[in-house]
TrEMBL record:
Key words of the record: Kinase, Membrane, Phosphoprotein, Transferase, Transmembrane, Transmembrane helix, Two-component regulatory system
Catalytic activity: ATP + protein L-histidine = ADP + protein N-phospho-L-histidine
GO CC annotation terms, alphabetical: plasma membrane
Histidine kinase domain mapped to chain residues: 269-486
Organism: Waltera intestinalis
Name of the molecule in the record: histidine kinase
Gene3D superfamilies: 1.10.287.130, 6.10.340.10, Histidine kinase-like ATPase, C-terminal domain
């Protein structure tokens, strides 16, 4: 059973409604318009015939000017015959009413000599034609003025002159033939409607199935990847929407593969980094145990090496824990409004003694005062790692320049140096965990390969960006860009 929330069900219902509503409206419209047009046409035809009869009545003096009959012999019989024929033709009734509101002629023969005073008759004597259709009882009633064409038939306003009206013809005709024709038309329209409904229903089922097939293929392809039957990118180019969905999924799949590869590489690197100090410690310890009478100086030297390796192991574990904490999205930042200029001065003051050991000059250039909403601990970590790396990987007698600037939305922290630089092929990987451009040189300096990974994570937590430019042998430039106002997700 198709769920109503599914796209297929909604397409089916949409096509069904779009097809059925015009079909039903069209049937009712055709039937209703036919009845209105048939009634209007019949009124026009009968009115024309009544006007001809009215002229005959006047020309043959059927009514006197005073409402008194004038016996005209055969002419009256001819007119009466015409009235009877009209009455029989339309299965109706015709009454001739004189100016005294008396019935001169009734084709039913039941109201002659009687007085009829009604709104329709009065308005007709005032020059207003009235026609009324009663669909409930199935008849049409109309009034026709009997005009004396020898008098002025219109007044100064262009309307019918009441003085020229000699009488009124009150006519009622049956509407059975129109009703019967309407019923026949309604039955045929209903049959056509049923046929169209069946056709629209079949079309809706077919189109809903065909139009959703590309989405079903997308689902099947994604399920195949999920179940592990395939790890290739998928392609369903039927619609623009499926192309967008597939592209987004392929990008996600690509990122998942990259994350999986990174995770495997990370585990391998962690195992290697942790195993190396342990191996060194074991070798040193085994060397001491193998010597029964080793001098105290040798013991002290080996113990210093063991302590150094333990410190290195501890540093790796500390950095790993810091990186794991950075990766946890649930971690909250302790956002405060902070003077970045003062923080930079403090950090450089702490790091200048390290720079002096290598005779590296550290220069700070503050373009303008900067106050931003940041986490002080994380911001300190970002600045310290970048400046410390610039000092460590610098040349003797080199320089490090720190520039602090801001605009209306972001502040920038730029660290450039005259150091050894980074090869172009390594620029895209330097923020990866345990990645080292020169592994042997990094080990001499004492890095763990996690500093830039931690730095980038801290920058991303502030919704900022970290970009690097470098020329091998000439130096590097790290640019951090962070919003002045922190907006929580």
């Amino acid at each position: 059973m198709i769920k109503l929330r599914s796209l297929r069900a909604r397409i089916f219902l949409l096509i069904l409604v779009i097809g059925l509503v015009p079909c039903i409206v069209m049937r009712h419209g055709i039937v209703s318009n036919y009845e209105d047009m048939a009634v209007e046409q019949r009124i026009t035809v009968v009115q024309n015939q009544l006007m001809i009869l009215a002229n005959h009545l006047v020309s043959n003096n059927y009514l006197s000017s005073h409402g008194v009959r004038e016996d005209t012999g055969n002419s009256r019989e001819v007119i009466n015959a015409e009235l009877e024929m009209l009455s029989n033709l339309y299965e109706g009734r015709v009454m001739i009413i004189n100016k005294n509101f008396k019935v001169e002629k009734d084709t039913y023969g039941i109201s002659e000599g009687k007085t009829i005073i009604s709104e329709e008759v009065i308005k007709c004597f005032q020059g207003e034609n009235i026609s009324h259709y009663d669909p409930e009882h199935g008849y049409i009633e109309m009034t026709t003025p009997i005009m004396d064409t020898t008098a002025n038939t219109t007044d100064e306003n262009g309307k019918k002159n009441p003085d020229a009206i000699r009488g009124v013809m009150l006519t009622s005709i049956s509407n059975d033939s129109i009703v019967n024709a309407r019923e026949v038309l309604n039955r045929k329209a209903y049959i056509m409607e049923v046929i169209m409904i069946v056709a629209i229903l079949a079309l809706a089922i077919l189109l809903s199935r065909v139009l959703t097939m590309p989405f079903n293929r997308v689902t099947q392809a994604i399920n195949a990847v999920r179940e592990g039957f395939s790890d290739e990118t998928i392609s369903v180019p039927d619609y623009v929407e499926t192309v967008h969905i597939v592209d987004a999924f392929n990008q996600l799949l690509k990122r998942m593969k990259a994350l999986d590869d990174s995770r495997q590489e990370f585990v391998a690197n962690v195992s290697h980094e942790l195993k190396t100090p342990m191996t060194s410690i074991k070798v040193l310890a085994d060397s001491l145990l193998a010597q029964d009478d080793a001098p105290a100086e040798l013991y002290r030297e080996f113990m210093e090496d063991i302590t150094s390796e333990i410190d290195r192991e501890n540093q790796i574990i500390t950095d790993l824990l810091a990186l794991v904490k950075m990766d946890k999205k649930v971690q909250d930042l302790n956002i405060v409004s902070l003077n970045i200029n003062d923080l930079t001065e403090l950090i450089l003051k702490r790091l200048r003694p390290i720079a002096r050991k290598k005779d590296v000059e550290v220069v700070f250039e503050s373009v303008r005062p900067v106050v931003a909403e940041v986490d002080e601990v994380k911001m300190t970590l970002i600045m310290t790692n970048l400046v410390e790396n610039a000092i460590k990987y610098n040349k003797d007698h080199g320089w490090v320049k720190v520039v602090l600037d801001a605009d209306h939305q972001y502040f920038t922290f730029e660290v450039s140096d005259s150091g050894i630089g980074i090869p172009e092929e390594s620029l895209a990987h330097i923020c990866e965990r345990f990645y080292r451009v020169d592994k042997s040189h990094s080990r001499e300096i004492g890095g763990t390969g996690l500093g830039l990974a931690i730095t980038k994570s801290a920058v991303l937590m502030h919704k900022g960006s970290l970009t690097v430019t470098s020329t091998e042998g000439q130096g590097s430039c790290f640019l951090v860009k962070i919003p002045l106002m922190y907006i929580a997700s």
